Amino acid sequence: MKKTRNQKAWFMVLPVLILVAFSAIIPLMTVVNYSVQDTFGNNNFFWVGLEWFEEILASERVHDALGRQVTFTAIILAIEVPLGIFIALHMPKKSGFWSSLCLVLLALPLLIPWNVVGTIWQIFGRIDIGLLGYTLDKIGINYNYTQNALDAWITIIIMDVWHWTSLVVLLSYAGLRSIPDSYYQAAKIDQASGWAVFRHIELPKMKGVLLIAILLRFMDSFMIYTEPFVVTGGGPGNATTFLSIDLVKMAIGQFDLGPAAAFSLIYFLVILLVSWAFYTVMMSMDKENDI
Amino acid sequence: MAKITLSNLAHSYLNNPNHDDDYALKTLNHEWTDGTAYALLGPSGCGKTTLLNLISGLLTPSKGKILFDGNDVTELKTAARNIAQVFQFPVIYDTMTVRENLSFPLKNRGMKKDYIEKRVIEVADAISLSNILDKKANGLTADIKQKISLGRGLVREDVSAILFDEPLTVIDPHMKWQLRTQIKEIHKNLGHTMIYVTHDQTEALTFADKVIVMFEGEVLQIASAAELFERPEHTFVGYFIGSPGMNILPVTIEEGNAVLGGHNIMLNAKYKKLNGKIELGIRPEFVTLTNDPFALPVTIDRVEDVGHYKIARARFQNHQINIILNECDEIKSATTHVIFDKKKINIYQDDWRVKP
Amino acid sequence: MKINNSAIIIVLYILFLMLPIYWLLIMSLKTNQEILSTFNLWPENLTFNNYKVIFTDPSWYGGYINSIIYVVMNTIISLSVAIPAAYAFSRYTFLGDKHLFFWLLTNRMAPPAVFALPFFQLYSSVGLFDTHIAVALAHTLFNVPLAVWILEGFMRGVPREIDETAYLDGYSFFAFFRKIFLPLIAPGIGVAAFFCFMFSWVELLLSRTLTSVDAKSIAATMTRTASASGLDWGVLAAAGMLTIIPGALVIYFVRNYIAKGFAMGRV
Asked: Which of B220, B316, C65, C259 has the greatest number of CB atoms lying within 10 Å of its CB?
């Protein structure tokens, strides 16, 4: 569709600009401001240039948190995306009572406040009162997420899979539903195998929504804070201290404003760069499809 | 290639059909001769796609049998029936090149590599795709995509029939004609049995050797284009085919003549006494203006110029009569007289044609 | 539904999703004593006491009220600024439109943790700390970009000819917008509202940072109670169950739109 050029359209965008300026630009400026200054308290600030950035980039603590974060995001993407596609492929094909019921039940975890997700799994995994922890303990598996780093990781990963796989399922399902029946009929006539149908029909048609799913899961898992905070508080030790948890510890817990601000900016920049790469790929694919 | 026999075939989408109206396709007996091009013609929802899907095996009929060359295939799956189908919206495998698309059905059937290569080139030549064989199928235009899906059917030498489900729907108008000619050409050269579903009469009449006109789940007539024009078996066929369609006028039969609103119309043949709803059908092409004061008096409401001919919308009492005017005809006054070519008149009893 | 592999897989997966919720539910119906002493899949002494605690204690039910207030405020604010902006993006090109659109989206990518402290300082300095509007405004950070994105997708699906026909018919811009355009994209507005509601409802970090007493959200109430007493599992479970209900209701009402919204490729 051809759009008209009209500079007056700016007026329609103005409310959004003012609002977002208030809720994004001003706070971001504050962060930038902190990131280049130091203070001895009493609101006395002085210029330190890029010192904080250097400190953060060299900080082992931040490196470790980043390492954990990347590992976590990689693991959950590797589980949730294939699992989500797999579940979507087995969803009821016809719309009706069953598919509606499945959709509602699937979407339920997405609508639970994140701290409650944390609470649910915190309880569920406890060896004294939780179904999962108790059962594992009784069948002789030594499991304790508050003390064992590996158990904590497993718990948080299962929790995230529980919480977010449905998003991938819903997106893939929508992608699958947009495939006309005639594609499946043609595949039958061509005697295509189940794998060929998936590889040459379903996967290409899901490509667009899958990229969105991966982008969203990347962004949100990279920012994860509430759920692991509630379950493990970043522990045991620092085992599940991801970037956001570390940042909040630094900014609000220790009130190290300078380093925290520099940390924030680097953190934001990393997400932005990866997302921008995604966005570019998506846009170029959109164009390809338009031809 | 095969002869397809439909025996007492009927289909309903309901689980327990008990009324005639429950059937999307009413009981049908027919034999499709090998190598003939058929067109299934009818308005949307007349059951033509249902019939097509029954033949291709995408649907299993509620009643009756389908035989290919005398073998019962009613229970066979689509793949086992060896048919090819071209759908309304082009179905191509986006990720593959044109060549890979064409070889896909053969690969799936485990054919040898050099045979596939040879066969793909043959078919690509036949449908003039040779020069784009190594292009990605994704970026091509709709008419080329349709050719690729046709090609995927043609590569299989043993194909029993090629089915087309309104294949020109998404094709640009100026390409429609070209693609249709090409399909017709392929039919002539390769001699496949072809079944072509459409709601466009021009497409059906120009493509097919035999046209099957359907309405509300029922086959009304199976005939060549000329027969459909001259002797429609059902008033709907008369009305649906032709532009404008046949004039259908309520009459009574008295002493060998038809009487329309107190006016006698000469008939070519004697009809026996008829009961029920009696109608006379005459195509606008066979209605002519005359100065004869004893002919049927009509009032001309308006004249439409559709380019190569003119249509007069006329009225006799409150009956609409369309007339296709000759080039030399001139309308001098609003009231004039018309005569019907008596050799071209058909008489219908309860919508079905009666023989004299 | 025929019993086949697909059905088994889906049932198993849904079982996996429901089990922890089921555990929370039965825990909320047990007494603390039973929770800690015996292990069973169904409460021996069914009790609604935990729920009674929540409905009678203002510090508990106040949390729900506060949460609903700022969530609704946020949804209204987000939609009312996003609708005109999405219209502009879907219909016109203007100086810097593409950069602006991407910049808006970047705000969806901003980690709330980055903004927690500056928000706290900003809202404290303008005297909005511990008010509903502060949380509502803070949540616009990620909800406005999202709403613009979703709505733009839906609006792009409405042919321009409709706008033009309406102007030819003598509609003013506002009359057209209100009487013709908005009803046409009602599903889009529904989907956008659903996501605004959802993301505002589930967020904890900002709502906890920006409130202390008067506008304290239910999420914050829960975490603070958990850390303070730490032992009242029954009430905590009941509170958790009650937070699931609004989400379940909302999803039930928009269930038919969700697939559609997802199908447009915009979330």
From this structure: B220
